[in-house]
Each structure stands twice: as structure tokens, then as C-alpha cells.
Design a protein that fits this description.
Elements (H helix, E strand, L loop, with lengths): L2 H30 L10 H27 L20 H22 L6 H25 L6 H24 L5
Helix pairs in contact: 1-2, 1-4, 1-5, 2-3, 3-4
Length: 177
């Protein structure tokens, strides 16, 4: 397979991973925001959140793996876990690594939730907001697809929706567990 195909596949999988992460974060915040209390008992929204979060993981791994095998990208396996080490685009690629690592922690600790202290799990789970922000900035800084108006509009509106829900949660509170 030619490197250009790896790069195209990585872009497609990266955009799909971002969409899955957006759905996971939006549905997760919506479930616990007091302004949207009517959604708290919505089983379909809960299932969407529970489906989208682990869906992101293989998509994120595929995005990174395709970049590792693409010789043009010059991404090494260590760059998937150790941020800011690439010879170019250190900030952009490093933020992608930070976001990936944080989502990995969120997914893994969600699987271990029943064996963890609830307060610790909640704080670890909240790092998904930081992960979303890091991955969004990663996409803006390194994603050539943002030149396409439809991709840019969808990504920015997704980020705005997440920001609005987070602000509403901060201002009006969180539903009790």
C-alpha cells in the first residue's frame, strides 16, 4: 500500500474517531446536566454514550497506527504514548497524543468502575473534557481537512455544543448520581 493511501485512511479514521468522541462527550454531559434533567432517564441516550465511548478507542488506535506505518508522517510508536517528541508539529501531534492517552484512561477506568472509589472515578472521567479539547486543537492544528468548509463547520459546531453543555453544567449544576 502506498503511503498516500495510509495518509488518506488515517484522515478518514481520524475524522470518524473525532465524531465518535464528540457523540460520547455530548451524550455523557447531557445525561448529567441539570438543565437537561429530562434526559437523565433516557435509556437510548445512555446506550449511545456507552456505545460511542469504547467505539472511539479502536478508531483512535487505527488513526495512530496508520500514521505509524505511513513513512511520510514520521510518527513512531512511542509518539502514541509520549507526547511532544515528533520532529515536526510537536504541539499539534503532542496534543493528539495527550488526548489519546486521556481517553484511554477514561475508557479503561470506566471498565474498572465497580472496583474504584466513586469520587476518583468521577474525577478521572472528567478528564474526557480535557481530552476532547486536546483532540480538537490537535485536529485544528494538524488536520488538513479543516480547509474543507463542511469539515470545519461540523468540527467547530461540535466543539461549540460541547462547550455550551459544559458551561450549562457549571452554571446550573450536575444531577445527583
Amino acid at each position: 500500500m502506498n503511503d498516500y493511501l495510509f495518509w488518506l485512511a488515517s484522515r478518514a479514521v481520524g475524522l470518524t474517531a473525532f465524531a465518535a468522541l464528540t457523540v460520547a462527550v455530548l451524550s455523557g454531559v447531557a445525561l448529567r446536566t441539570s438543565v437537561l434533567d429530562f434526559l437523565a432517564t433516557n435509556r437510548a441516550l445512555r446506550r449511545l454514550h456507552d456505545f460511542a465511548t469504547p467505539l472511539w478507542l479502536p478508531l483512535g488506535i487505527a488513526h495512530a497506527a496508520l500514521l505509524v506505518v505511513d513513512r511520510t508522517a514520521r510518527i513512531e510508536a512511542r509518539d502514541l504514548f509520549v507526547p511532544f517528541q515528533t520532529p515536526y508539529g510537536q504541539l499539534a501531534i503532542g496534543l493528539g497524543t495527550v488526548g489519546f492517552d486521556l481517553v484511554l484512561v477514561v475508557v479503561l477506568t470506566s471498565w474498572l468502575k465497580k472496583w474504584m472509589h466513586q469520587g476518583l472515578w468521577r474525577w478521572l472521567h472528567r478528564t474526557s473534557y480535557v481530552a476532547f479539547a486536546a483532540i480538537f486543537v490537535h485536529a485544528v492544528l494538524s488536520g488538513t481537512d479543516f480547509a474543507a468548509p463542511i469539515v470545519s463547520a461540523l468540527a467547530w459546531s461540535s466543539a461549540a455544543a460541547v462547550a455550551v453543555l459544559i458551561v450549562s453544567r457549571v452554571l446550573w449544576g450536575r444531577l445527583p448520581s
